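Hi V.,

Quick status before I head out on leave. The structure for the redesign project is tokenized and pasted below; the design run finished overnight.
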């Protein structure tokens, strides 16, 4: 009887360990191939250079090779990682050459991270891949995939749903004498997409002198 109890406890421990492991797969399950995006595009050496195109080898997994693979940090100093990186995203992309992906750059990579986390939690169907048992933290491979393919539809959906100013439903309120009063929009220069506002500034009065702009805001 005692042996049966010990065996039962051991099996329960293994089952719990297996369940914990099953819940710890890295990433959000983003798969650009399932979303119809299969080409990496990038510039080398200069922002004036032509974009190069490379058919992504989705079997190349730089996060799963090398002496100590890491889903969240890719060590180019490891030849196996560098080779897999270039097979996936293109020749010379793992070198010291200046590199720029066709999608949003590293300076706004945190926003792409947030877009993938948002999709994982709110719209997993958008990710294209297997989201089961993922830990919900985007891997470096997933982040580079969205940069290299410029998956605009995904990050734009995040902007329009969650960020102020990027949809008519989420207008920002401003008081700006250089903009027309009331509802309007303009092309946001960094992202190149519409930005929506409600300008509460009052029209100029029909006499002089005019009120300072700071006093022409409705409600002031």
């Amino acid at each position: 009887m005692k042996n049966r109890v010990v065996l039962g406890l051991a099996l329960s421990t293994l089952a719990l360990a297996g369940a914990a492991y099953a819940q710890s797969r890295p990433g959000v399950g983003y798969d650009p191939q399932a979303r119809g995006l299969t080409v990496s595009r990038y510039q080398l050496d200069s922002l004036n250079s032509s974009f190069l195109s490379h058919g992504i080898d989705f079997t190349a997994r730089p996060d799963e090779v090398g002496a100590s693979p890491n889903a969240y940090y890719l060590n180019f100093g490891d030849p196996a990682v560098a080779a897999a990186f270039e097979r996936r995203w293109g020749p010379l992309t793992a070198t010291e050459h200046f590199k720029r992906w066709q999608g949003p750059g590293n300076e706004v990579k945190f926003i792409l991270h947030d877009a993938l986390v948002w999709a994982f939690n709110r719209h997993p169907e958008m990710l294209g891949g297997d989201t089961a048992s993922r830990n919900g933290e985007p891997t470096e491979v997933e982040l580079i995939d969205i940069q290299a393919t410029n998956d605009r539809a995904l990050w734009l959906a995040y902007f329009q749903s969650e960020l102020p100013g990027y949809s008519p439903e989420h207008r920002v309120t401003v008081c700006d004498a250089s903009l027309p009063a009331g509802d309007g929009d303009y092309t946001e220069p960094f992202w190149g997409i519409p930005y929506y506002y409600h300008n509460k500034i009052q029209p100029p009065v029909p006499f002089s002198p005019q009120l300072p702009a700071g006093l022409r805001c409705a409600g002031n």
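Above is the designed sequence. Residues 168-215 form one domain.

G. will cover questions while I'm gone.

Best,
W.
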